């Protein structure tokens, strides 16, 4: 049970499924509202709204990709007596806590790029050279052992609790945090591509969400991630040489 693959997805309790859907929809609704009114960013860099925007992006993009793991966790802990009901929510909270940390780092990165005048008005890297460098770096990362190791952790979430079932709130929160850290390590380079397409580009958000979801669910994740890496390397090289 602890190593149950994500493809064998349980139905999950209805309140948990509804909560995951509601949180993801709320995140996407917030981002769509901001994308249709870029003046919400104030025409410059505002740390508070930028951090909220990145946090909403992480909820909207990453929570759907983590839903299979959360439901598997819920199925694993469902037989625990008494207090098992809150555990999947704490597991999901720990997962999002890791991505909230990434949102803080992304906010700092955006501030730095803004101060260096490297961002266009739509919050994308303003020159093909810098965009090519980011694409090339993200593509190369897709071929690294670190990417493979973190992806394995994302795809086998119950392996993180093999040494002891997280039957208490603190353990469930920590298990979710560990999963979130694995996923952050796996996907941070792909997330950096938002600075290529534009931080508020809904098309890039949707495309990256689909790519990350497929990496977690496909039967041949290494081939997919390396294929994506080749595409990113080719695109980045074209920008650098063009």
From TrEMBL:
Transmembrane feature ranges: 12-31, 51-75, 87-109, 129-146, 179-204, 224-241
Any matching Pfam family: PpoB2
Keyword annotations from UniProtKB, A to Z: Membrane, Transmembrane, Transmembrane helix
Keyword rRNA processing attached: no
Name of protein: DUF2182 domain-containing protein
């Amino acid at each position: 049970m602890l190593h149950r693959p994500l493809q064998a997805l349980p139905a999950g309790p209805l309140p948990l499924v509804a909560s995951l859907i509601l949180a993801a929809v709320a995140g996407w609704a917030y981002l769509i509202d901001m994308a249709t009114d870029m003046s919400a960013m104030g025409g410059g860099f505002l740390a508070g709204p930028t951090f909220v925007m990145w946090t909403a992006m992480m909820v909207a993009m990453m929570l759907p990709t983590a839903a299979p793991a959360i439901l598997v966790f819920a199925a694993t802990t469902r037989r625990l007596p008494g207090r098992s009901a809150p555990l999947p929510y704490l597991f999901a909270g720990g997962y999002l806590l890791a991505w909230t940390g990434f949102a803080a780092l992304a906010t700092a990165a955006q501030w730095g790029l803004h101060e260096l005048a490297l961002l266009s008005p739509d919050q994308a890297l303003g020159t093909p050279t810098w965009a090519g460098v980011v694409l090339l770096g993200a593509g190369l990362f897709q071929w690294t052992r670190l990417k493979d190791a973190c992806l394995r952790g994302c795809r086998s979430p119950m392996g993180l609790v093999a040494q002891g079932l997280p039957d208490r709130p603190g353990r469930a929160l920590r298990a979710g945090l560990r999963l979130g850290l694995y996923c952050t390590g796996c996907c941070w380079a792909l997330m950096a591509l938002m600075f290529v397409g534009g931080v508020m580009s809904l098309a890039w958000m949707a495309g990256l969400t689909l790519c990350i979801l497929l990496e977690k669910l496909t039967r041949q994740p290494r081939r997919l991630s390396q294929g994506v890496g080749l595409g990113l390397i080719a695109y980045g090289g074209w920008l650098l040489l063009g």
